[in-house]
Description:
Blueprint: H1 3-14, E1 20-31, E2 35-40, E3 48-52, E4 54-55, E5 65-72, E6 77-85, E7 88-90, H2 92-98, E8 102-105, E9 111-119, E10 127-138, E11 141-146, E12 149-154, E13 158-170, E14 175-191, E15 197-214
Antiparallel strand pairs: 1-5, 1-15, 2-3, 2-15, 4-7, 5-6, 6-9, 7-8, 8-11, 9-10, 10-13, 11-12, 13-14, 14-15
Protein name: Lipid A oxidase
Keywords: Signal
Domain Outer membrane protein beta-barrel: 5-215
Amino acid sequence: MRLSLCLPFLALIATPAAAEIELGVYGGAQSAPHSEVEISDDSVIGDTSFTAGWDGNSFEAPPYYGVRGTWWRSESLGFGLDFTHQKIYADDETLAESGLDRLEFTDGLNVLTANVWYRWPEAAAGLTPYVGGGLGVAVPHVEVETEGSSTGEYQITGPAAAVVAGASWSLNSRWSVFGEYKGTYSQNEAELDTGGTLDTDVVTNAVNLGVSFNF
């Protein structure tokens, strides 16, 4: 076959499909199971460990929410960033057991991950199922208070991971709505104002509803 006849074919297979950018925002209901908390401190709080029960209070200010951007490199495969402002409050039983006046990550237990996504475009009844997962970092607002001690600041506390499974439904060529389950895991080693540390690994579970814009 002559080279001149091969060139159009080679150009076709070498040209990638047009990339698509998707921006999404979401909210929902988020909770967290109990986790072990260890405090190492030679000052006011002292060394202690206990099992913390957490409340999510997703709809109380500041509310639970998330934002994400995805670069779809093909019809099925995408890459992006996902930020979730989740939060946890130690329940009354935990505070009584630990002797703390406050233990919260409420201006959030923020998690930022770099994700890989896979979708099945309009697999059934106009719905596009998708799954995703990623690795990143936890940047919570740490709030720990007791008599004579008060910590309240944003900190980078450790690595984080996220998994997502859901489905989207197109309203038109630009807008879509979606629903999903999202789970996160974060390792948190927070510094206290006393010079001590607080360690806890937190798992969160969330059911999200959101809207996305595609261009």
